[in-house]
Design a protein that fits this description.
Oligomer: single chain
Structural class: mainly alpha
Helix content: over 70%
Number of strands: 0
Radius of gyration: 30 Å
Order of helices and strands: HHHHHHHHHH
Shape: elongated
Number of domains: 2
Length: 214
């Protein structure tokens, strides 16, 4: 008796499953189609990204080699386009090349390119902090105290590996301005860091002994 009931239940369940697929075959077909499209779409998108990356790599290499070979026509314009592409690898490299070779001398334009990397490019945390530090370093010769601190505050108020560098930059900035008390304050902050850069910490200690304990 129990075996007969079990057979009936199995048949009933199978019938319900069969009816479900028959009644919903249109929706199921649409769902399967969407899954297939998403699957192939993902791999197509990934392939496009790889191709674009390879294209940027080739373009960056071509531009830098051309510049170093003496062909400097439109190099600045083309490297700026790479920065503006917001690629996390070649956009920073393009900006560094522009700076290292003095290809662009307009402060406003260079700071705009820095901001594209900092605000609009999907960079890893410490890479972004490095670019913030480089922006501050670039601006340190002509920016005001408040503006320089504004640039560096994201690093100074964090536990970044670049915090020691940022504090040292501010210490040197104030020392160059003759504001020794402010300079000493930043050198002391470096020394007090638990996980600060050991070389910078040692240099800060030397500076305090040589420049402030006279």
């Amino acid at each position: 008796m129990d075996e007969d009931i079990s057979i009936i239940d199995t048949r009933t369940r199978n019938e319900k499953i069969k009816n479900f697929f028959i009644n919903n075959k249109k929706n199921i077909a649409i769902l399967i189609s969407i899954i297939i499209i998403l699957f192939f779409g993902y791999f197509a998108y990934d392939e496009i990204k790889k191709r674009n990356k390879a294209k940027l790599a080739d373009q960056y290499n071509y531009l830098t080699i051309s510049f170093l070979s003496g062909n400097k026509t439109n190099i600045g314009t083309e490297l700026i386009k790479i920065v503006e592409s917001k690629d996390k690898t070649y956009s920073p490299l393009a900006l560094y090349f522009l700076l290292d070779n003095n290809i662009i001398n307009t402060k406003e334009k260079i700071n705009k390119l820095f901001d594209i990397l900092i605000n609009d490019t999907n960079l890893e945390g410490e890479i972004k902090n490095l670019i913030i530090y480089k922006k501050a370093l670039y601006n340190s010769d002509f920016e005001t105290e408040n503006n320089l601190l504004k640039i560096l505050n994201p690093i100074i108020n964090s536990e970044s590996m670049w915090k020691s560098h940022a504090l040292f930059l501010m210490a040197e900035y104030f020392f160059s301005k003759g504001e020794k008390q402010k300079s000493k304050h930043f050198f002391e902050q470096i020394i007090d860091l638990k996980d600060g850069n050991s070389q910078i910490k040692l240099e800060a200690q030397k500076r305090i002994r040589s420049d402030f304990n006279k």
